[in-house]
Design brief:
Length: about 150
């Protein structure tokens, strides 16, 4: 997992009074992913949530949970950051967060122009887009886990 991304997650949890998330490394190899999920389930009973590093890691978590007969999203929720085209094919549906590329490009150009014009009031920002093919479910998660590849 990107050190910067993990630092942001930890800082955001602290700012909101949330416990620091447990970080679990998960392989894209099915048997190793199953072992990582079994290890997690040994210390945390469902319900809980997994925030995966990217779509591929989320797919590994989903496959492992299915092999372990854990119902997604009823027992464990899975969300990730990537939103590649493959995410739409997930079954069960995957909730994924993606950056709107056109918006990011416009903001990059604006930031460069701002710096060139010595605008000291410019603040970087980025628009995120939450996508899901899943029906809305109430959140019953008792813990959050970050999965990295």
């Amino acid at each position: 997992m990107s050190r910067a991304r993990l630092d942001i997650v930890r800082r955001t949890c602290a700012e909101h009074g949330l416990p620091e998330p447990r970080v679990v490394s998960i392989s894209h190899k099915r048997n190793e992913a199953c072992q990582a999920m079994a290890d997690l389930l040994a210390v945390q009973a469902p319900p809980f949530a997994i925030c995966a590093f990217n779509d591929e890691t989320a797919f590994a978590a989903l496959a492992a949970l299915a092999d372990l007969h854990i119902s997604v999203p009823d027992e464990v929720s899975v969300i990730d950051h990537d939103n590649t085209l493959i995410a739409e094919l997930s079954n069960p549906a995957l909730t994924t967060i993606g950056v709107v590329a056109s918006d990011m490009g416009q903001r990059l150009i604006a930031s460069v122009l701002s710096v060139l014009q010595e605008d000291l009031f410019w603040k970087p920002s980025c628009q995120l887009q939450r996508c899901s093919c899943a029906p809305q479910h109430s959140s019953r998660a008792h813990g959050s886990y970050l999965c990295q590849q």
